[in-house]
Write a structure and sequence with these properties.
This protein is α/β, with parallel strands linked by helices and 476 residues long. The chain is built from 12 helices and 18 strands. The chain has 3 domains: 123 residues, Methylthiotransferase, N-terminal domain (Rossmann fold, 3-Layer(aba) Sandwich), CATH 3.40.50; 265 residues, tm_1862 like domain (pyruvate-formate lyase- activating enzyme); 79 residues, Nucleic acid-binding proteins (OB fold (Dihydrolipoamide Acetyltransferase, E2P)). 30% of the residues lie in helices and 19% in strands. A hairpin with a 2-residue loop joins strand 17 and strand 18. The radius of gyration is 23 Å and the shape is globular.
Length: 476
């Protein structure tokens, strides 16, 4: 009987891609997926270490699965926590059989042994390149695709470059080959969500000289947005634009997550709008210029509003998401009031707010001006109080509209306005086939979610993808 595995994934979409590749590798090595953790011979936890709350969740999950596993089953910890705190984790968690940093096969090795560090297998194991491992076919009509690993930026709050390393982008053909692997399953692949730490800089590391500037954000300073605005609105030799255009020819929807505002030039905006998915996930973090400078970030609230307004002029139906850190060291009441006023004016569709988390190895760990936790909580609540009614109002405004919906699962779908697993959903009739793309009319809204039914009339309830497989995307 083949050995069975259980894979628990925590953290961001980039971690989910890593888990998909780990699952594909395990199955290639003869493992089969278990129905529950208690049924598995090998239990793997792919951890997140981005902020303290994520680390606490990872530790709690490890301990829970250690209790749930059957006698004799191996417990392996991999992912960001394993890379960042490997020896410390192994010494602190005797329940764990192997702590496997990036590049260590999770199914190999034995804990301990002469000459081995804590949690490091005594077997000599080959290096695994997670970025380029093959993936199993997608089991949903959408999939994340990670196009680069690491990051060359130096944001003050982030320690990811210290354990994920510098950015290394995949060749375009390797990305397209992965799409082919994903699309070979029983469900048609309709949407690809491109992810990376710095997606807009995809491919630049393959052609940029060491130490050269990132677009709009020189290594030596704060950058000048004006350099990105020069030239015509069409045409670019930026690899991300080549990638987006190539992807648009093979799937119905291409969605981009985590775009730095300093890299969002006219050509990239046009490329996004050309996909038929006018969804902009902008990594803003704050709007106060002094605080952004302390974060080692480009921009300010006025520049962000200018760029959002420009996109809305080109495509009034564009959807926007961003996230903001509350309580970063040195954040004043004036900074916070500026954020509240900005949220009210920008009227973004989706916003996430996160309390500042001190990260060893990050620039901000040595900054003064810590904001008391009680005040951070108060400021978070004020941000939510401003944003929640805006999100609800923007959803209510969709009632009566005809939208194009991708059916993700029985009774659940999404329009271009909703990123999978992040935003709200569109509740649809449960008898609609998974993977179909339908014109639907919005009949109601429930907080972040919409309710919709197929359009009645000739062709209104049929799959909008043509018989020849070509995309037929229409925005309303």
């Amino acid at each position: 009987m083949p050995e069975r595995y259980w894979l628990e994934t925590l953290g961001c979409p980039k971690n989910q891609v890593d888990s998909d590749k780990l699952a594909g590798t395990l199955e290639r090595d003869g493992f089969v997926a278990a129905a529950t953790p208690a049924d598995a011979d090998l239990v793997v936890v792919n951890t997140c270490a981005f902020i303290e709350a994520a680390r606490e969740e990872s530790i709690g999950t490890i301990l829970t699965l250690a209790d749930e596993r059957r006698a004799g089953a191996r417990l392996v910890v991999t992912g960001c926590m394993a890379e960042r705190y490997g020896d410390e984790l192994a010494a602190s968690l005797p329940e764990v059989d192997l702590v496997a940093p990036f590049g260590v096969p999770v199914s190999l090795g034995r804990k301990g042994g002469a000459g081995a560090g804590p949690g490091v297998g005594t077997d000599v194991v080959p290096s695994l390149d997670l970025l380029n491992l093959p993936r199993p076919p997608a089991d949903a009509p959408w999939a994340y695709v990670k196009v680069a690993e690491g990051c060359d930026r130096r944001c003050g709050f982030c320690a990811i470059p210290s354990f994920r390393g510098k950015q290394r982008s995949r060749p375009l053909q390797a990305v397209l080959a992965e799409i082919g692997e994903l699309a070979s399953g029983r469900v048609p692949l309709r949407e690809v969500v491109l992810v990376a730490q710095d997606l807009a800089s995809y491919g630049l590391d393959r052609s940029r000289a060491p130490g050269a500037d990132l677009p709009g954000f020189p290594v030596s300073g704060s950058g000048a947005f004006g350099t990105l605005r020069e030239g015509p609105k069409t045409g670019s030799n930026r690899p991300i634009i080549d990638l987006v255009r190539a992807m648009g020819s093979v799937v119905d929807r291409v969605r981009l997550l985590y775009l730095y505002p300093s890299s969002l030039d006219h050509a990239l905006i046009d490329a996004v709008l050309g996909t038929g998915v006018p969804y902009f996930d902008l990594s803003l973090q704050h709007v106060s210029r002094p605080l952004l400078q302390r974060m080692r970030r480009w921009g300010d609230g006025d520049r962000f509003l200018e760029r959002i307004a420009e996109i809305r002029r080109d495509e009034p139906a564009a959807a926007f998401r961003s996230s903001f850190i509350v309580g970063y060291p040195g954040e004043t009441e004036e900074d916070h009031d500026a954020l509240l006023a900005w949220l009210a004016e920008a009227r973004l569709d989706w916003v996430g707010f996160f309390p500042y988390s001190r990260e060893e190895g990050a620039h901000a760990a040595g900054l003064d001006g810590l904001v008391p936790s009680a005040l951070v909580a108060e400021r978070l609540a004020e941000c939510v109080e401003i944003q929640d009614p805006i999100t609800a109002a923007r959803r209510d405004a969709s009632i009566g509209d005809v939208i194009e919906v991708l059916v993700d699962a029985p009774g659940e779908g999404r329009s271009y306005r909703e990123a999978p697993e992040i935003d709200g959903v569109v509740v649809v009739p449960s008898d609609l086939a998974v993977g179909t793309v339908l014109d639907m009319v919005v009949t109601g809204a429930d907080g972040p979610d919409l309710v919709a039914v197929p359009v009645q009339g000739p062709g209104g309830g049929s799959d909008r993808r043509g018989a020849d497989g070509n995309r037929q995307v229409v925005l309303r």
